[in-house]
Amino acid sequence: MSTSLNPTALVRLLGSWNSGALPAYRELADVVRLLVMDGRIPLDVALPSERALAQTLGLSRTTVTAAYASLREQGFLTAGQGSRGRTRIPHRTAPVSAPGLAVPEGLLDLAYASLPAAGEVVHRAFADALTELPARLPGFGYDAVGEPALREAIAEKYTAEGVPTSPGQILVTSGAQHALNIVLRALAGKQDRVMVEHPTYPNALDAIRAAGCKPLPVALPSGTSPAWDIDAMVATMNQQRPAMAYLVPDFHNPTGRIMSDLQRRRLTRAAAASGTVLVVDETLRELNLDGVRTAPMSSFSPAVVSIGSLSKSHWAGLRTGWIRADESLIVRFVAARTVMDLGGPVVEQLAAARLVRSFAEPLDARLEELRHNRESLLGLIAERLPSWEVERPRGGLTVWCRLPLASSTALTVLAPDFGVRLAAGPRFGVGGAFEHYLRVPYTLPAAQLEFAVGALRAAQDKLDASPHLRRTLKTERPPAVAVA
Ligand SMILES: Cc1ncc(COP(=O)(O)O)c(C=O)c1O
Question: Does the predicted TM-score (pTM) go above 0.85?
Answer without folding.
Answer: no
